[in-house]
Amino acid sequence: MRTERWPLERVRAQPRRAVRDVDALARSIAEVGLLQPLVVAEDGTLLAGYHRYLALRELGWQEAPVVVLDLDALRRELATLEENLVRHELTELERAEHLRRQKEIYELLYPWTRDGVRQNLALTKVESGDEDPAVIVSAGYKGNEEEDLSPIDSTPPFARHVERVAGVDERTVRRLVRIAERLTPETKGIVRGTKVEDNQKALLYLAKLPPEVQPRAARLMVEGVPPRLAAARAEREMRESAPIPAGADPLLPPEIVYIHGDFREGMANLVDGAAALVLTDPPYAEDAVGLYGDVARHAARVLAEGGSLLAYAGQSHLREVMEELGRHLRYWWTLALLHRHGGQTIFGKDVWIRWKPVLWYVRSGRGTAEIVPDLVEGSSPEKGAHPWAQGAEEVRPLIRALTLPGDLVLDPMAGSGAFLWAAFLEGRRAVGWEVDPERYEQGRAWLMEQYARWQEGREEEVYAAVD
Q1: Is the pTM value of this prediction over 0.70?
Q2: What DSSP assignment string belongs to 251-263?
Q3: 34, 260, 427, 464: which has the fewest C-beta neighbours closer than 10 Å?
Q4: Which CB contacts under 8 angstroms, 24+ apart, belong to 126-130?
Q5: How many Å apart are CA 439 and CA 382, to the nearest integer?
Q6: Can you list the alpha helix ranges (DSSP code H) found in 110-226?
Q7: pLDDT tens digits for range 92-141
Q8: Per-residue pLDDT averaged across 358-364, rounded?
Q9: How far is CA 467 from CA 151, 459, 460, in A?
């Protein structure tokens, strides 16, 4: 392997169908330079860095730094790894690391076998320099017709290749590679030499956790805590220990922090993965659609793995709202909140509205397994706080289903504070922001009133128990 500078004309790039935002990458390279060189074979075939290659062409670069790989040396290493996988007694972690390295080499040798690339490769050659290398042509894998196919068609994906040469089924291969890719070096060091190192189920649980949580869960597993319980306990301990914004109010419960300010500034100061749920009711006007995108952008960072975002929405601009949310998070479901009152009529649309969408998005996947009904009974809101307040009772089942006791719940546009109060009643911590000073004072007053009533009720329970 060596690093050189090559004319871009010398690089032979296979055209692909799926091309992401090359313009944005080109702007980044223009501002900060090319941080990673292209990876090529001796004959100039581009092995890695197709989008960087397109961006450099767009910027008019004549040459670029490249890492030149000796494919024969890679083939020898691949053969050794395949032999070790078959002949040697390896732990599950060792098998995972062998397979990860095999996959790296295999996909450098046969770049068209990468996930999602085979269907996007162009079979037609770019014979003229005037042709666009991103020409759209589709190719498919036809594993039963290898004798009649080109190398692109006949070379199987990595997991299928391993199944053939080592007898390991494809699903197991993918699981083991995921383990090796996602476990941190610290986590691997903790489990080496222990029973956990040879427990695929435990390693998979660790691989699903955020990097900062993995070591804590790994130590619990090494101590004998079952994998599922160790993972859940480590995540809960992390969230409970995560710092929350300053702003404790002596007249509110310590579990509620209600802040007068812009949620974009507030959420930017939270640590990654601090929250289990973002629950909010933004304005529904057309000029407020961008707020959903701002919430989702910050939620994608501050939510823990498996965390959820629930956002109330109006129907008038639902498509635009979902587009904003979908830029940053994964769509999960739409819940229907039934209006407790008789609904309202939208003139101009001639529609009698009897329900409201509650859009459910997740970070990567869902972290809890409790069944959630997609029909939510609305509860009476506290309109005294401010005109658009929602009911606290209607969201309590959702908070119970999507979080654990002690988890952190965020409301970026808290208004009356009803969602913060609901989280408190469910034994969760809550942080909310309200940018409008008048509404903030109304919401704070309402929360103080609820807290005073709650304390009175607790005192009555104590007196009744004593009597």
Answers
A1: no
A2: TS-TTEEEEES-H
A3: 464
A4: 126/15
A5: 13
A6: 151-154, 158-166, 170-182, 185-191, 200-208, 214-222
A7: 999 898 888 888 878 777 776 765 444 444 333 333 333 333 332 233 33
A8: 93
A9: 85, 12, 11
8-state DSSP, 138: -
State both tokens at 412: 């970026």
Contact by Cβ (8 Å): 201, 121: no
* pLDDT tens profile 171-198: 888 899 999 999 999 999 999 999 999 9
Amino acid at 228: R
Share of the chain above pLDDT 70, in %: 78
Whether 460 has a pLDDT exceeding 90, the answer reads no
Return the amino acid letter for 226.
Answer: P
Token pair listed for 224: 């004998």
User: Which tens digit of pLDDT belongs to each residue from 362-383?
Assistant: 988 887 778 899 998 877 655 4
- Here the tokens at position 216 are 């804590």
Q: For residue 106, what are its two tokens?
A: 């295999």
| Three-class secondary structure assignment of 346-412 | ECCCCEEECEEEEEEEECCCCCCCCCCCCEEECCCCCCCCCCCCCCCHHHHHHHHHHCCCCCEEEEC
Residue 226: pLDDT over 80: yes
Side-chain half-sphere exposure of 93, counting CA atoms within 13 A: 21
Sign of the Cα torsion 399, 400, 402, 403 reads positive
Q: Which of 279, 268, 288 is nearest to 414 (CA)?
A: 279
* C-beta of residue 344 within 8 angstroms of C-beta of residue 356: no
